[in-house]
Design goal:
This protein has about 475 residues and is of the alpha/beta class. It is built from 16 helices and 21 strands.
Length: about 475
């Protein structure tokens, strides 16, 4: 019989992705002893199968598209991308799927790493193999999400791609069917079409990126079509099979599509099905509901940080939550009474509610923060949408010939502050932080007039938006 080892820490973090790493960093900075448990690679989904590899694939695609908009340079980049070189650079960014550097970082902050599948085995207790980790103050669960596949007969035998396969593939399939219309679907369709695949994008709904302003999906769909992809909206998948290595897709209308690979980008599910939630009165496989300090409802020791609380499934937002949770854990460990119902304080992840920024790295880029028009109206705000065509901005014309883009700000008419901003166009992703500051800071329109954009830059879109609000 194997003897069980018991180790006690102030904090135990379950999951060593960027969210778990940030919780550990903040609790260690506060002087709390911290253990981190990871069953896969330290660094998590973002480092190896999501943010970093996907953006490494997309950066050459976007750079080439920008270059092709510039006379004098366009002629030099007419040929195809060097797919092997792009994939090699992607591999470098993932560390060839080894985590030595991130393991060293865990050690450098003074946290202890336990490799293996960790499960809650009672209040303030996590078991990893033959080791029991007991937490004096808090357990923070940051196990993230996995790709959710639809319930299609025989799908497992088809061996479909998920987001992990799409970001780690070592060659471009000749024909790739992408099922879905969200961020993963549009980004991977953009990348693989440019890297040599013939992409067919099947979207069940009316358009792409349906959680954003409608014009965002329209401009991305137009660009994908211009790039050679076959974009089909209002198209469902009835069945999938693989015959002699070829994927056969039958749509809801009975149409047959053949491909070499198929990617399902149809949503995410929480990785909470086998972490022992039942031992603390919670439901395995469920999203975990939390308060603004990220503490799980009904507990005084368990925190759920990042994707698993379903507040905002974005790495940067999860890291924000981790900083908040780490501060709250440390304060409570020190006996500090946290402010109650206090938005925008050091222990409340207020930005999760109506100030979440996001960039979709397609061509054109889509960048948004806060509420869309539909969301603002549904929330009961009295708002007005203000739109600007980017062709009115001098910096856009300088950026490239035939620049297409659009911007929208959602103005709260009662307070004359911004509830949301959306930019769609090449090079606009870097503008979103200015919009985030305006939304989070609730900066009045009257004061924004004094934030003068430099000429001639893309940021002059801010002036055009203010003028459109004033003059219409």
């Amino acid at each position: 019989m194997t003897e069980t080892e018991t180790n006690t820490y102030d904090v135990v973090v379950l999951g060593a992705g960027p969210v778990g790493e940030n919780v550990a960093d903040r609790t260690r900075a506060a002087g709390l002893t911290t253990a981190v448990v990871e069953s896969e690679l330290v660094g998590g989904e973002c480092s190896y199968w999501a943010c970093m590899p996907s953006k490494a694939l997309l950066r050459p695609v976007i750079a080439q598209a920008d270059a092709r908009r510039l006379p004098g340079l366009a002629e030099a980049v007419r040929g195809p991308l060097d797919t092997s070189a792009v994939l090699a650079r992607r591999n470098w960014f993932t560390g060839d799927w080894t985590d030595d550097g991130q393991v060293e970082w865990i050690k450098s902050i003074g946290a202890d790493l336990y490799r293996g599948h960790g499960r809650l085995t009672g209040p303030r207790q996590v078991t990893v193999g033959d080791t029991v980790l007991t937490a004096r103050h808090a357990v923070a669960v940051a196990t993230g999400t996995r790709a959710a596949l639809p319930d299609l007969p025989g799908l497992a035998e088809v061996r479909p791609w998920t987001s992990r396969d799409a970001t780690s593939a070592q060659s471009a399939p000749g024909r790739l069917v992408v099922v879905g219309g969200g961020v993963v679907a549009t980004e991977m369709a953009t990348a693989w079409q440019a890297l040599g695949s013939q992409v067919t994008l099947l979207v069940r709904g009316k358009g792409l990126l349906d959680r954003m302003e409608p014009f965002a999906g329209e401009l991305v769909a137009e660009a994908l079509t211009d790039a050679g992809a076959d974009v089909r909206t209002g198209t469902s998948v009835a069945s999938v099979s693989r015959v002699d290595g070829i994927v056969v897709v039958v749509t809801g209308t009975g149409e047959r599509i053949e491909a070499d690979e198929i990617l399902f980008a149809t949503g995410r599910a929480p990785r909470t099905d086998d972490i022992g939630l039942e031992t603390v009165g919670l439901i395995p496989g469920s999203w975990l509901s939390v308060d603004d300090s990220l503490r799980v409802d009904g507990t005084n020791w368990l925190y759920a940080v990042g994707d698993i609380n379903h507040r905002a499934l974005l790495t940067h937002q999860g890291k924000y939550q981790a900083r908040i949770a780490g501060a709250a854990i440390a304060a409570r460990a020190a006996g500090t009474d946290l402010p109650e119902n206090g938005p925008w304080n050091a222990y409340a992840a207020t930005a999760d509610h109506e100030s979440v920024p996001q960039v979709v790295f397609t061509d054109p880029e889509v960048a948004a923060v806060g509420l869309s028009l539909a969301e603002a109206e549904a929330a009961g705000y009295r708002v007005r949408a203000v739109d600007v065509d980017l062709s009115s901005v001098s910096g856009a014309g300088l950026y490239g010939e035939g620049y297409k883009g659009r911007a929208r700000m959602i103005v709260d008419l009662d307070g004359e502050i911004l509830r949301g901003v959306t930019f769609v166009g090449p090079g606009l992703g870097e503008l979103i932080h200015s919009a985030t500051i305006a939304v989070v800071g609730q900066i009045p329109i009257a004061r924004l007039w004094h934030a003068v954009p430099s000429y001639p830059t893309l940021s002059e879109v801010w002036l055009r938006l203010l003028e459109a609000y004033r003059d219409n």
